[in-house]
Amino acid sequence: FMSFFVRALGVREAxxxxxxxxxxxxxxxxxxxxxxxxxxCDVSEEWTAIGKRYWEKAGVADRIELRLAPAIETxxxxxxxxxxxxxxxxxxxxxxxxxxxxxxxxxEPGGVILVDNVLWGGNVIRPDSDDESTQxxxxxxxxxxxxxTLESVMLPVADGLTFIRRADSGSxxxx
Length: 175
Prior knowledge:
Elements: H1 2-9, E1 13-17, H2 23-31, E2 37-42, H3 45-58, E3 64-68, H4 71-77, E4 84-89, H5 96-103, E5 107-116, H6 132-146, E6 150-155, E7 161-166
Helix pairs in contact: 1-2, 2-3, 4-5
């Protein structure tokens, strides 16, 4: 799905927040053109080493740049100007708001942010679920849904995916 989606959008510059074992990075990179670029942000050398092996085997390692540091630090080190056509957010749930704040000014007009785990195993609708991550995802979902400057759609696929665009960025992707 991600390879198809990235290819369909014509993405050339992408960023991933939370790489883990590199599967989503592999899918994104496969959707990029040969001269496309994916910046991966993660903190674990151990887990991302798994991904690096498979990026090489798949022939997409030259499209992927991995930065091992807290993602918020990496984002804040980037110029605050549009650069990315696509962002995938799948990291520390308590930082989703901060990541969104840093990604939005760096997103090209028409760019899309894909956010994973927005249903959080169904916990977001369970009143008795009140751990920090669940509360953070609820707040993030509420923020995105109520922000008039954003278009969004949440799909109940797997653990929930939300697609986000700026409301003024051209054709509509939300429903």
